[in-house]
């Protein structure tokens, strides 16, 4: 267990350095966390967050199989506990059990750069303090032991962006610092990005690579998103709530409570006479006012109290009965560049590590294979980069993907097996010389070249594109309705009907493909822009000034066309009307 999740910090620091023109520079790959611990008593709660450990591309060694099974089991235990937290219901008006005595306010203010002092006695904060240090203690202790591998460098990156460093505890309540967490709503990774938001913030997501699972890239994207939300709402707590529940919901709720529309520049609480710190505290307080209404979902109402409780425990674990958190020193690792589809099991063998450890360091490759005909970077143990790079470059194409076993079924012939995998019969015979003189019988093993599986994947991707690759689709199963799919994919029923051109009385058929996210022509607003205008979807980092220059229109014309007051910042994903 030498190469897994602990080297993230040094790699993240290295990723901020200017690019070099030499051979691949050393990167930091995630390294192993603490040793596995005995499983707690079985939790019967149905998990919301499940392991994202797909089947590897080829048969693996027994030791790898055991290690992969342990990783999947650990993710399943995370899932059960994260589900329990997501569905927890703090009792209304009930006084939680008394926790440990709290240190004085002055000391707390010196420990935190988010406002915990004013909310220590809040009922939901107390509830989650008791929950974390009581019923979910065992799993929380494991997450706290993972934390030092990531939290210090996430904190440094947050502070560099002008954000509170204590937002580094958000992944603690999002995923337990797990890079492979996947929610039922298909949010993925340590930062639990939805597909659309991840793409807006520059993460590559396709059938080969999902950078939401890349800790370094997902962290950079999450910090940019949090920076946009904090600029928009003027409060780390409102930003965190918007991260969880969506900025539109927060903005509408604030407007309904007459607390401003989310623009701190237009909020009286930002007046100079109260000072910037008091202005932020006033905006933080607006979250708790909003949380006492029906305008937020229960999970979003509890999101900030969970963050405060988790931060209190993470800062002083022993005070709440947890073991002291061990400190993990950053280590460097190397990287290799791969030009074509290559199995991670092959790279692991060349680097002298197990597949389980290498895949844990490179979880973004969801098939345990690098993409075909594309440049890929794979992290390997420090000191092995040069030798592994030379070995990878020397690999013949036929050896880049490990063959796999096909167990012969009753009635199968070698010719039928070859047709199943799209291979010439001669190619299967050359791979299995023992069947040149005899036919395989039931139970025999026929070895299939790894390129056959690659060809199947490529063909599958082409079918998806041919099926109308304007956006993700869902194949309807028995008993599913449009309402169930709307709830599952967190979209409105009206949008599903519009994207799929379905009337109000339409009935779904088993096997029917339903588009569940916008893409191509689907998902565009049914309201066409007026003549002489067009619509621009804001990307991360874009400003009103940069768009005015790009489209050669005045700043005031842009503001007027979109009803934007002076000082209003843009949010990735926002749609702007561009006047002629």
Protein model, in words:
The protein is mainly alpha-helical. Helices cover 42% and strands 6% of the residues. The protein contains 23 helices and 10 strands. The protein has helices at residues 8-15, 62-86, 105-111, 123-133, 137-146, 151-160, 170-174, 195-200, 215-233, 236-245, 247-256, 276-291, 298-315, 344-351, 355-361, 385-393, 414-420, 425-431, 450-466, 482-488, 493-500, 544-551, 555-562; strands spanning 50-51, 181-182, 334-338, 376-380, 404-407, 445-448, 473-475, 513-515, 534-537, 575-578. It has a two-stranded antiparallel sheet with strand order 1-2. It has a two-stranded antiparallel ribbon with strand order 3-4. Strands 5-6 form a two-stranded antiparallel ribbon. Helix 4 packs across helix 13, helix 10 (236-245) crosses helix 11 (247-256) and helix 10 (236-245) runs parallel beside helix 12 (276-291). The chain is globular, with a radius of gyration of 26 Å. 39% of the residues are buried.
């Amino acid at each position: 267990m030498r190469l897994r999740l602990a080297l993230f910090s040094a790699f993240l620091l290295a990723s901020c350095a200017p690019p070099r023109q030499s051979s691949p520079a050393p990167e930091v790959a995630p390294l192993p966390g603490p040793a596995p611990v005995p499983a707690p008593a079985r939790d019967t709660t149905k998990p919301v967050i499940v392991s994202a450990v797909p089947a590897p591309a080829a048969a693996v060694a027994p030791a790898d199989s055991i290690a992969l099974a342990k990783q999947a089991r650990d993710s399943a235990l995370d899932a059960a506990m994260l589900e329990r937290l997501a569905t927890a219901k703090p009792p209304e008006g009930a006084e939680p059990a008394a926790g440990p005595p709290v240190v004085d306010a002055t000391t707390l203010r010196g420990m935190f750069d988010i406002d915990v002092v004013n909310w220590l006695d809040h009922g939901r904060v107390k509830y989650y303090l008791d929950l974390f240090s009581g019923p979910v203690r065992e799993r929380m202790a494991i997450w706290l032991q993972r934390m030092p591998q990531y939290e210090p460098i996430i904190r440094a990156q947050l502070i560099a962006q002008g954000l509170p460093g204590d937002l580094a505890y958000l992944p603690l309540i999002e995923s337990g610092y797990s890079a492979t967490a996947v929610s039922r709503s298909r949010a993925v990774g340590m930062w639990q990005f939805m597909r659309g938001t991840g793409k807006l913030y520059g993460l590559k997501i396709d059938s080969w690579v999902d950078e939401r699972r890349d800790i370094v890239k997902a962290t950079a994207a999450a910090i940019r998103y949090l920076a946009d939300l904090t600029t928009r709402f003027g409060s780390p707590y409102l930003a965190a709530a918007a991260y969880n529940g969506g900025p539109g919901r927060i903005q509408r709720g604030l407007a309904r409570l007459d607390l401003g529309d989310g623009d701190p520049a237009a909020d009286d609480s930002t007046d100079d006479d109260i000072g910037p710190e008091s202005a932020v505290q006033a905006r933080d307080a607006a979250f708790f006012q909003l949380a006492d209404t029906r305008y937020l979902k229960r999970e979003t109402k509890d999101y900030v109290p969970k963050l405060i409780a988790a931060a209190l425990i993470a800062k002083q674990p022993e005070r709440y009965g947890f073991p002291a958190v061990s400190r993990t020193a950053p280590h460097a690792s190397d990287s290799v560049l791969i030009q074509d589809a290559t199995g991670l099991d092959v790279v692991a063998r060349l680097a002298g590590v197990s597949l389980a450890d290498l895949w844990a360091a490179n979880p973004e490759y969801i098939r345990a294979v690098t993409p075909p005909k594309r440049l890929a970077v794979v992290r390997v143990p420090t000191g092995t980069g040069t030798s592994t790079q030379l070995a990878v470059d020397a690999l013949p194409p036929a050896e880049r993907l490990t063959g796999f076993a096909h167990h012969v079924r009753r009635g199968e012939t070698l010719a039928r097996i070859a047709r199943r995998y799209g291979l010439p019969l001669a190619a299967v015979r050359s791979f299995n010389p023992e069947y040149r003189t005899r036919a395989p019988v039931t139970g025999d093993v026929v070895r299939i070249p790894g390129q056959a599986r690659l060809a199947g994947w490529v063909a599958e991707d082409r079918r998806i594109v041919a099926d109308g690759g304007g956006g993700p689709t869902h194949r309807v199963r028995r008993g599913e309705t449009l309402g169930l799919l709307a709830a599952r994919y967190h979209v409105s029923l009206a949008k599903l009907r519009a994207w799929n051109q379905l009337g109000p009385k339409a009935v779904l058929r088993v096997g029917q493909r339903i588009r569940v996210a916008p893409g191509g022509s689907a998902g565009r607003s049914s309201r066409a822009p007026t003549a002489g205008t067009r619509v621009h979807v804001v990307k991360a980092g874009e400003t009103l000034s940069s768009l005015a220059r790009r489209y050669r229109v005045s700043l005031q014309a842009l503001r007027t066309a979109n009803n934007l007051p002076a000082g209003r910042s843009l949010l990735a994903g926002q749609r702007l009307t561009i006047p002629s």
